[in-house]
Amino acid sequence: MTEPQQYLNQYECPECQNLWDDVWDSACDDDCGECGLRHISPYESTDLPCEASRSATG
Ligand SMILES: [Zn+2]
After folding, report:
1. What pTM did the predictor assign?
2. How far, in Å, is the centroid of ligand 1 from the Cα of 22?
3. What is the residue extent of each domain of the chain?
4. Which of 14, 24, 36, 38 is most deeply packed, by most CB within 10 A?
């Protein structure tokens, strides 16, 4: 089995200008943790190298 490709998605809330990032297996929408606005698309999505996910276990 191969490791799933992961993406670092960066979001900015259009309501309260809250900035955050999250790691997903695709460039999917997220919800604002500050004001609760939903379905915010990432303004930036960066693919992560596979090695990054391996260091967590062990
Ligand atoms: Zn917000």
Report:
1. 0.75
2. 15
3. 6-49
4. 24
